[in-house]
Amino acid sequence: MKRIGLFGGSFDPIHTGHVRLARFLVDALALDRLIVVPAAVSPFKTGAPAGASDADRLELCRLALPDEKIEVSDIEIEKGGVSYWIDTVRAFASQYPGDELCFVVGEDQLLQFHKWRDYREILSFATLVAVRRETDEGDGGFAAYFAAHPEIAARSKALAFEPFPVSSTEVRAAVGAFADVSALVPPAVETAIYRRGLYLDDEIVRMIADVKSRLSEFRFFHSMCVADAARRLALRYCGDPKSAYIAGVLHDATKELSRKEGLAYMDGHGVCATDMERRLKKLHHAITGADYAKRVYDPGDEIVSAIRYHTTGKTDMTPLEKILFVADFISDDRDYPGADGMRRRAEGSLELCMEEGLRFTIEDLAKEGRPIHPDTVACYNQVLLQTIRKEQEL
Ligand code: DGI
Ligand code: FE
Ligand code: FE
What we know:
- This protein is α/β, with parallel strands linked by helices.
- It has helices at residues 16-28, 43-46, 54-64, 75-79, 85-95, 107-110, 119-125, 142-148, 150-153, 168-176, 187-196, 202-214, 217-236, 241-250, 259-268, 275-279, 281-297, 301-308, 319-330, 339-348, 350-367, 374-387; strands spanning 3-9, 33-38, 70-72, 100-105, 127-133, 156-161.
- The chain has a 6-stranded parallel sheet with strand order 3-2-1-4-5-6.
- The N and C termini lie far apart (75 Å).
- One fe (iii) ion (FE) binds at residues 251-252, 255, 285, 310-311.
């Protein structure tokens, strides 16, 4: 006979508190298996179009709990609509005949438990495990509640747990504010939230949808990875994470225009470019992309300029320009030889990372016999002269 725990909730999103509780339950109840059951949530109920879909919440739970003993079930989400716990418990009881089932409720839920649909039948299938805050002075009203409901008490046990002080509401607000959420959610969840653009304000959600419609799946994925990398670099180097993220989302928006379309864009919108820039197709998307961002979203000169120079670089780059330039080299989707070295370098210094990236680009271009834009050369020379030791002979 196995002992199986059920842990339901909306997990919008799953956070560090949930993860700690899940691990605690496995140990404290000596579970063979813990099944996390995200509830179906009506998109109308949560309101915000930026909210996470059922599939998003499910995937975030899976990313948060890569644990042999913990599994995430899509039973309620597959069913859709309002779920009643009795249906879920009944389904698991028939899936695991002869095994021992228990399910977890928090303090607030316990005090309402006698109002749950068919709660007696629920208790015929599974033991109720009520988790109360270890920090509470009293017992969270548990004793009084159990005294008033002996038929519930007979099938329940109480567990004290020091909760990690975070709520999903708080996480959503912190994500939307581009605060550092690394302590609030597991690293894989943080990455997935920003790669998917969850819990962000409408304007950014619109940008993401627009970029998605303009690019292939692969290029869109790259853009979102760059957005997340830029956001992280901004947190690390005291830049503005929101601007960095927006610059990342938009930086390659016009990348898939053909040479003809790129030139037509420049001519149609009166965008200035030198003869060399018009001939080098690889540079078109930085020039048209900056104009596109300004025209459609007007996100501010700094972001527009970061997009404009993300391919070549230039002298006297602002922190945001450097951040986007580096993010494009180190985003998670990059797997060229040396990518990991670049990521490590970016942890230490944006300039050292730029120097290496520019050297790499220039070497590559020279080997292939392609022209090197003067901005690329000027940028390389400037970071090189800044990063090498002054007394070093050149
Ligand atoms: O748009 P991405 O592929 O994400 O990255 P990017 O905008 O940095 O573009 C990289 C490409 O641009 C790469 O193939 C090298 C090319 N490139 C960068 N600087 C120069 C350049 N090509 C020429 N001809 N001259 C440059 O100075
Ligand atoms: Fe680019
Ligand atoms: Fe890019």
